[in-house]
Amino acid sequence: MWTASSVLNPKQREESLNALRTEHFDVLVLGGGVTGAGVALDAVTRGLKTALVESQDYAAGTSSRSSKLIHGGLRYLEQYDFKLVREALHERELMVTTQAPHLVKPLSFLYPLHHKVRERTYVGAGLALYDALRGLQRALPNHKHLSHKKVQEIAPCLDPKIVIGGIEYFDAQVDDARHTMMIQRTAAMYGAHSLTRARVEELIREGGKVVGARVTDLLTGESINVRSRVVIMAAGVWTNELHEKFGVKSNYTVRMSKGVHILLPKSAIASETGMILKTAISVLFIIPWDNKWLVGTTDTDYTGDKVNPVATKEDIDYILREANKVLLRPLTNEDILGAFAGLRPLVSQSKAALSTKTSREHMVDRAEPGFVSIAGGKYTTYRVMAKDAVDAAAPDLPSTLVDSITKHIPILGAPGFQALVNSTERLASEFGISVESVNHLLNRHGSDIFEVGALITQDSSLSAPLCDGLPYLRAEIAYAVSHEGAMSVIDVIARRTRISFESGDYGRSVSDAVAELIAPILGWSEEQKQASLVEFLAFAKSESESAAK
Ligand SMILES: Cc1cc2nc3c(=O)[nH]c(=O)nc-3n(C[C@H](O)[C@H](O)[C@H](O)COP(=O)(O)OP(=O)(O)OC[C@H]3O[C@@H](n4cnc5c(N)ncnc54)[C@H](O)[C@@H]3O)c2cc1C
């Protein structure tokens, strides 16, 4: 049944499960990362009957572990990939202005210069091109040359003997896990069904065509044969193993590269702006993250566990070493509040074939009738990737298939956001919370602030912060399970909020309070609550111990 509700919660999960059992879909999406959520939104807004299954939680894979930049990618300019940069910059402008202004925020970066004249000319020309490639839509300011003195003023952390000037430019930032979940909620609003903790086991084939997939509900063990005209797989780093398991002869493979970030307190780096530092192999970003710094990343080949990749001491030493090359006060291990690792799905074509469309950095492959897989690309270009995947499935879909319209579809919470930003004091008095909390809520929920506010109106104890030192309100923890599809303590601490890397103890000190708040909403028994806490503590242990090894 078309529920036309953006709510993701246990009741909605039950309804979606029932739909999987009984209905015949146009598109079944495998994978609830940003690519899969984007595909679900693209498909459902073209009028296709759509369902998505995710084996873990929304964004539990790479889509919660990126650098969280919505950017054109300066390094692609050096590779002369102007088409990719132009496309990504176009997406950036779209997200900052109309698609997700509540979630995607402009951010200034300083490119520190080490040599006079030549370097300034070279980098300046690159950044002029970066600005120009945006086309006529220009939401973000142009780049600006800064003197030695000005750089010292805005970034006193930089060693003035090493950094002799700089150039400021703009990109944008997003909380990736939150944004992915909001895309899925938007898809739900247009009628897409979705389910986490549901794993695709095998494809169902009839008459030489894929006609659906067998899905296991990981909460009960129930096996369901889901019927669909096409299965679109967006499995990121799981692509190779699933191609093999499903007996699909694909024309591309995915290589994993690990990237690590560390979190530092604001006091560790004196700067008013983010920074991009060129390294021997790539770049290192120093990115403002609320009132902290996110610093990364590494780029190393990886073959280990895909579910829980972790930062090692070697990764962290590399990040500290690279940052310390320009900093006056060197960073040490004692500065680090937390760390996380993610796996880049890097695609390469295994053999030339007509069915494989190599598109920029991502691959779309219709290896068999009724089965399309997509992987690679950037978080920033998820919308274009999703459109390409649904376009590739056209031979399996009704001939009345219309063009993608996601360019014109704002993400949930975007409509009305600007008007609410102009009304923060009124909202604060309406909900009995500070203007600071209103700003925090607006930048995470946009116009859905009213739903969070309604919880506070029903129970004023939810207006209190979850803990000291972090901005999350108790209402947001309740809302994470009542509206945002969180189903465990880990979902709330690691993805609906980012407490796992922001708190300094990987969220251990708030885990009991989180479990207390969500247990009644999820209808948990004491045993289920304890099991979720045990699962969380194992996660926190693996995240914290690995970095110390
Ligand atoms: C360190 C790092 C930094 C990055 N920084 C940036 C950046 O700043 N900007 C940018 O634009 N891009 C960045 N990226 C790239 C970007 O994060 C990825 O391209 C993007 O998140 C990939 O999303 P995805 O949906 O394809 O994969 P994923 O997010 O990994 O989603 C795949 C999903 O499939 C699910 N799945 C697997 N098997 C099954 C099954 N059998 N049944 C059901 N579900 C299944 C998984 O659980 C997973 O959730 C970065 C990547 C890394 C690693």
Description:
Helix 2 packs parallel to helix 7, helix 2 packs across helix 10 and helix 12 crosses helix 13. The strands form two sheets. Strands 3, 4, 5, 6, 11, 12, 13, 14, 15 and 16 form a ten-stranded mixed sheet that branches. The longest helix is centred in the last third of the chain and has 23 residues. The chain has 549 residues and is an alpha+beta fold. It contains 19 helices and 19 strands. The chain is globular. It has three domains: 187 residues, FAD/NAD(P)-binding domain (3-Layer(bba) Sandwich); 172 residues, D-Amino Acid Oxidase, subunit A, domain 2 (D-Amino Acid Oxidase, Chain A, domain 2, 2-Layer Sandwich), CATH 3.30.9.10; 132 residues, Alpha-glycerophosphate oxidase, cap domain (Helicase, Ruva Protein, domain 3, Orthogonal Bundle). The structure holds flavin-adenine dinucleotide. The site of flavin-adenine dinucleotide has 40 residues, from helix 2, strand 8 and strand 16.
